[in-house]
Amino acid sequence: MRYSGFRVIKEALTGHKGWTPAWRNPEPQSAYDIVIIGGGGHGLATAYYLAKQFGEKKIAVLEKGWIGGGNVGRNTTIIRSNYLLDGNEPFYELSLKLWEGLEQDFNYNAMISQRGILNLIHNDAQRDAFTRRGNAMILNRADAVMLSTDQIKAEYPFLNVDDARFPIKGGLAQRRGGTVRHDAVAWGYARGADSRGVDIIQNCEVTGFWIEDGACLGVETSRGFIGAKKVGAAVAGSSGRLMAKAGMRLPIESHVLQAFVSEGLKPLLPGVITFGAGHFYCSQSDKGGLVFGGDIDGYNSYAQRGNLPVVEDVCEGGMAILPAIGRARLLRMWGGIMDMSMDGSPIIDKTHIDGLYFNGGWCYGGFKATPASGLCFAHLLATGAPHEVATAYRFDRFRRGNMIDEKGMGAQPNLH
Ligand SMILES: Cc1cc2nc3c(=O)[nH]c(=O)nc-3n(C[C@H](O)[C@H](O)[C@H](O)COP(=O)(O)OP(=O)(O)OC[C@H]3O[C@@H](n4cnc5c(N)ncnc54)[C@H](O)[C@@H]3O)c2cc1C
């Protein structure tokens, strides 16, 4: 069924009896050409592009819980392509371009809203760094503009610009950045993949791999063995645990990241803002809640909830630039498990086991990467070669010393 304005009107006039489920609920088959493990944004996008772009046929996505229950439905919904390094910027710019046409492409309303993102600057060194970043973005055909303090005052009048511990000295804006309704991305890709014949199998946990003579021949699951010519793992925060079942130790640690939503307020924030003297980022949802977050909790964990010291730290960051936030009540908060890599950049690569492919290490920036990650992983699975914008995302960069260390923090996941 194709969704359209006409369809909405027709259903409204006929008692909404014509809507069909957005995706099927099939039983797993004994074997597939390609099995994707993980029904998050990246796994579903991979299956979608495999079917749509590469014409692959027998594909299954195996999800241990339900579609959208992982980080794809837990993040703070920010999309952007304001990266500095060559290994990253072309990839994230491709992703932003894919976001721009995504709703038409998969015929689903994901509430993509390019309301802009503003990185605040608080000192001269930061201005130099953001100017360099803005130039790198422009060289990669992304958009970037430096804003003066006066321009920021005009656009964001409620920010504490002068009378603050960290006065605001300017900002780097990307007007095409913004927000997307996160769980709708999972639903849209799921629906698009399902309509092209992909089996999306929920409540199906992968518990092991069948590996013979160095080749992966399928996966053991909570619903029995499923054979596969190729297996792609895209399980985000569970990457370490899953790949250990194939005997692999990854350059990835799992950490908790929390998100927060305030009570609904009248329109206040026109776009996304990030605080440059601490870690705080914030946007306002269409329902009016301020949606914000900050640092990871700083210890390894597989829990999907965090602790109070980070709540305090994030709220302090918010208060430093947006004192009005102190009057708002915190309505909801939750956590997600982040797959933090050792240089803060992702991995999309074959493993040393034939037929087993890996996608992960997205840290806490993987939501914006979803379309490009899906496309690049599908490209790798279908052709055996990396997509041109993902050539740097290989395992061996850690052995070769060619890290893509966007923040220059070294092998300290808690600092990326
Ligand atoms: C609080 C928070 C805020 C964030 N904010 C942003 C942001 O503003 N912008 C941004 O770009 N990124 C953000 N992120 C990061 C982003 O959400 C993740 O990097 C991205 O969603 C991870 O990819 P995914 O969608 O495929 O993961 P997930 O949705 O977690 O998908 C992985 C799936 O694999 C499944 N799985 C795990 N193990 C198995 C198994 N053995 N068998 C079968 N299935 C399995 C899980 O159940 C899960 O559904 C944030 C994350 C969090 C938690």
What does this structure look like?
This protein is globular. It has helices spanning 5-13, 41-52, 89-106, 124-139, 149-155, 182-195, 239-244, 308-321, 370-383, 397-400; strands at 31-37, 59-62, 78-79, 117-121, 145-147, 170-174, 178-179, 199-201, 206-212, 215-221, 224-233, 252-264, 272-275, 280-284, 289-300, 330-341, 347-350, 356-360. Strands 1, 2, 8, 9, 10, 11, 17 and 18 form an eight-stranded mixed sheet that branches. The mean pLDDT is 96. With 416 residues, it is α/β, with parallel strands linked by helices. The chain is built from ten helices and 18 strands. Bound molecules: flavin-adenine dinucleotide. Residues 37-43, 62-65, 69-72, 74-78, 205-206, 234-238, 242, 257-259, 293, 336, 362, 364-368 line the site of flavin-adenine dinucleotide.
Specify the number of helices. 10
The distinct bound ligands, ions and cofactors come out as: flavin-adenine dinucleotide
Order of helices and strands: HEHEEHEHEHEEHEEEEHEEEEHEEEHH
Mean pLDDT over all positions: 96
Q: What is the percent of helical residues? A: 25-40%
Tell me what portion of residues adopts beta-strand conformation: 25-35%
- Tertiary shape: globular
Largest sheet descriptor = 8 strands, mixed
* Class by alpha and beta content: alpha/beta
* Total beta strand runs: 18
Whole-number radius of gyration? 21 Å
Our measurement of the CA-to-CA distance between the termini, rounded to an integer number of angstroms, reads 43 Å
**Low-confidence regions:** none
